[in-house]
Design a protein that fits this description.
Elements: E1 9-11, E2 14-23, E3 32-38, E4 43-46, E5 51-65, E6 71-75, E7 78-82, E8 88-104, E9 118-121, E10 128-130, E11 133-140, E12 150-157, E13 173-179, E14 181-186, E15 189-194, E16 198-201, E17 207-212, E18 217-224
Antiparallel strand pairs: 1-2, 2-3, 3-8, 4-8, 5-6, 5-7, 5-8, 7-9, 10-11, 11-12, 12-18, 13-16, 13-18, 14-15, 14-17
């Protein structure tokens, strides 16, 4: 889905921001993903209320705090996973664009709401070679730990490189294309993708990717992990 196809909306807790809803339960997704453009000097927030919040700064700068005394400066490439008991409060120093994903946290029985959140910058996350191909590199933004029920990763592919198989799995994806160009295989069809395109992939959608163009292709994607499948 190309970005120009999403109309702007507004949210009561982000009254001065332009918001585009990229994915929602109405689409079939089990999460909500927003693209939020926040003007300089303005602010917005999401309450916790049992919902965890992931954010990734695409551009601009500002300040984050969680309502519990934990804050940090934000620049392009900053990210965070906010616990479901904390707020996600952002104030823009300069015009800021950020991706936000919200989902209901799935605790491990007995109910545990004790993960402390995870924050960092993309440049500090190691790029690991994927599938023995130096032209495919993966950054795992959220540690692979059972306290977390989601993964947020950045894939980078040099031109001519891609996923070595067609994947088919129970996890769903919300995928935002950061830079470059490529072709994505989705449910039997190859589709051209480029910067700012968004893809929602439902469970068991056959999928693969191949990078094309003059430079590396990069995308940020979500998947649900580390929990038993509900029956």
């Amino acid at each position: 889905m190309p970005l120009e196809g999403f109309p702007f909306s507004r949210l009561p807790s982000w009254p001065e921001a332009q918001v585009r809803v990229l994915a929602a339960p109405a689409l079939g997704a089990s999460f909500v993903q927003y693209l939020i453009d926040l003007p300089a000097g303005r602010r917005g927030e999401f309450a916790g209320g049992g919902f965890e919040t992931f954010f990734y700064v695409l551009s601009g700068s500002g300040r984050f705090d969680d309502g519990h005394g934990r804050g940090r400066d934000l620049v392009a490439g900053s990210f965070g996973l906010v616990p479901p008991t904390h707020v996600t409060r952002v104030k823009a120093a300069e015009a800021m664009s950020l991706l936000v994903l919200r989902k209901r946290y799935e605790p491990i029985p007995p109910d545990r709401w004790d993960f402390t959140g995870h924050y960092g910058h993309e440049s500090d996350v190691e790029k690991t070679v994927w599938a023995d191909d130096p032209g495919a590199r993966l950054q795992t933004l959220i540690p692979d730990d059972l306290q977390y029920d989601l993964a947020m990763n950045v894939f980078t592919f040099d031109p001519g490189h891609g996923l070595p198989v067609v994947e088919t799995h129970v996890m769903e994806h919300g995928l935002y294309f950061l830079t470059g160009k490529g072709v994505y295989f989705l449910n039997g069809q190859w589709m051209e993708v480029e910067r700012d395109d968004f893809i929602w992939m439902g469970p068991y959608c056959p999928q693969s990717f191949y990078a094309v163009g003059p430079g590396p292709a990069r995308y940020l994607y979500y998947k649900n992990v580390n929990r038993e499948i509900p029956l």
